[in-house]
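User: I'm putting together a small comparison set for a docking exercise, and I want a reference complex before I start. The sequence is below, and the ligand is nicotinamide-adenine-dinucleotide. Could you produce the 3D structure with the ligand included, as structure tokens?
Assistant: Of course. I'll restate your input first, then give the structure tokens for the complex.
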Amino acid sequence: MTKLRVGVIGCGRISVMHFGSIINIDGLELVACCDIKPERAEKVAKDLNINAYTDYVEMFEKENLDAVHICLPHYIHTDVAKVAFGYGIHVLSEKPMDVSYEKAESAVNMAKEKGVLYGIIFQCRYNNSARLVKNAVASGKLGKVLSASSTLTWSRSDEYYSNSDWKGTWDKEGGGVIIDQAIHSIDLTNWIIDSPVKAVSVSMANRGHDIVEVEDSADGLIIYENGAKYGFYCMNNYATDEPIEIKLQCEKGRVVFGYDDAYIYYNDGTIEEAHQDENIDKGMGGMTYWGFQHIRQIEQFYKAVRGEEPLEISGEEALKTHKLIMMLYDDGKMRP
Ligand SMILES: NC(=O)c1ccc[n+]([C@@H]2O[C@H](COP(=O)([O-])OP(=O)(O)OC[C@H]3O[C@@H](n4cnc5c(N)ncnc54)[C@H](O)[C@@H]3O)[C@@H](O)[C@H]2O)c1
């Protein structure tokens, strides 16, 4: 099997999950990394014996990449993806797609035109818990989802924001707790309900972070065309990163699940459950609240690059959640 040549742009916090996955997947050769902060790129390059760049265009010119992973601030995700598409390079981008719907949609269109794959990271869809629940709904075993709720109570300190030159800003992060943290629980619920959104009603505010512009708490109701109603609550003023909780009331049972565990209580008295794998590699240096499934999604992306199976979380698929996130901000009326 010819090895695929892979690069990573952005050597910040999340990049460890990408580097750790790429070097552990057969058939991939990590050849280069890029960060505008030279010391960050050089450190990774030295540790992993790859080439370091501060300019991604130079990396595209010199490295003959098959694929690139984008681990950058939100507002440049699609700008950089489009440059890669122009070089015929497949792209796997971190969530969210961008800070606007139009930019995300135009990147999806360009990837199609250029005939390259465009994947978006939503690694939580690869948790055993989420798979069990998605299959039980999609197969009809649970019947229709009637209502859903999700709760996210996490901690983002003032230092988390003051140590970053882009987080906490409307123009660069595109929002706060919704677009950055709760996006995963909102994506899971939206993916499982799997119906177009009819209406949203949202309240959002910055209630405890004086040093940032964006919302740090939000709640709302999302109404779907299939009749399902989904209420969410999220805030990042909590003392710790509590496990998230998603609940569903379905025609044939009810569900309680988070990233690690899922319990389905069917109306006929049977119970199904799923749990995190015991032997999953937690040694990549990431945060526990990110989950551990980047590697599963990255493996799936490269199966699609090799033409072995369709890409599961394509740009087109991710646009459904991106559209919803943008609707929440429009309705929240806090974004300038
Ligand atoms: N999937 C998850 O669970 C998860 C978790 C954390 C972060 N993320 C996402 O990962 C992305 C990065 O977040 P982070 O926390 O690692 O941010 P970060 O600020 O730690 O890292 C971003 C890096 O990009 C570099 N950079 C900025 N502009 C650049 C440019 N033009 N060219 C090259 N490098 C550039 C910065 O110097 C920095 O090192 C975001 O989209 C974030 O939402 C996803």
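The first helix runs from residue 15 to 22. The chain has a mean pLDDT of 96.
User: Thanks, that's exactly what I needed.
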